[in-house]
Amino acid sequence: MRAVGHPPRMHALSRPLIVGVTGIVGHALAERLTLRGGHVLGLSRRSSSTVREVEGLHADLTDAEALRSTIAGTRPTSIFLTAWARQDTEEENIRVNGGMVRDVLAAAGAEGTVQHVALMTGLKHYLGPFEAYGQGDMPETPFVETEPRLDHPNFYYAQEDELFAAAAEHKFSWSVHRAHTVVGYAVGNAMNIASTLAAYAALCRETGRPFTFPGSQQQWDGLTDMTDAGQAAEQMIWATGSPSAHDQALNVVNGDVFRWRWMWPRLAELLGVEAEGFDGTVRPLEEQTQGMEDVWARIAEREHLVESDLDRVASFWHTDGDLGRDIECVTDMTRSRLAGFTGYVRTLDAFASVFDRLAADRIVPHVRT
């Protein structure tokens, strides 16, 4: 996509910009990209990446002028878009999150150095937005990238459209990465099932309650898959440097499938609690943990944890949404495999690794055996 007659440009990964660098996938990208030796830029609203080699940039992602000012002169060669801001309605999600992509790419595109943009979205591309989740005609599983868009308005579609428009204007290649529920390391993230379950287990240990599966019978008995944050990061990095992945939408999951009735007792064992499975009723975590903020604060003080605010560690609403679905979610990875991406992660190992890291960093208490 280079203009004829221009001198050769730097490698696309020599100066990457991660938008949402403190998020669950943004953090995984930061860890991997810094190991490659490039000059990594990390954009977030306020806090900086804990990966020391990342150059921190700060701006409100919904403020176009602030983005232009912050990005001016940074000359990124690639962009990894991993941020989103949850709104009360899908109309607002579209306005805010579509606008975020538009304004980031307008600011970065003006630098004239961007060669590739990788956008992280998710399976709501196939399942529909929160307001119409799983309603109407759904594609059959496994989900494949060639499925047409659903009739419902969806902020993922708005983000894609802004990406396509910017790519045409600024002449860069693009990739869209559709992840399932992400397992990874991040604090204060709105979609973090690993820290949510680790915090829930700590509350169960403290109060003598069983580790009760909160979801539906479909999720308990049916097949499903997930996405390790490192797997998503590796695919985005691979796609940036691989012409076979350019201008493609790509599903990204770990590669294994499981049933929660198999996974739940194994997570309970890792977390030092007694598992209780599906009993015929949905028992949401938001209801199970209602009013337990003071319990968490007590645990945090006693165990010298770094975060005493339960809402900064656990996102019960989002995990309830994942585990309460009455629809099967299995994702096809054929397009990526044929293009050359061979990453594979066992989901149980992904959980175990994150649990260990959260405890080591005093975000959740250690499990005492």
From TrEMBL:
It comes from the Bacteria. Transmembrane segments: none annotated. Residues 80-365 form the PRISE-like Rossmann-fold domain. SUPFAM superfamilies: NAD(P)-binding Rossmann-fold domains. PANTHER family: 3-OXO-DELTA(4,5)-STEROID 5-BETA-REDUCTASE. This is Nucleoside-diphosphate-sugar epimerase. It comes from Actinomycetospora corticicola.
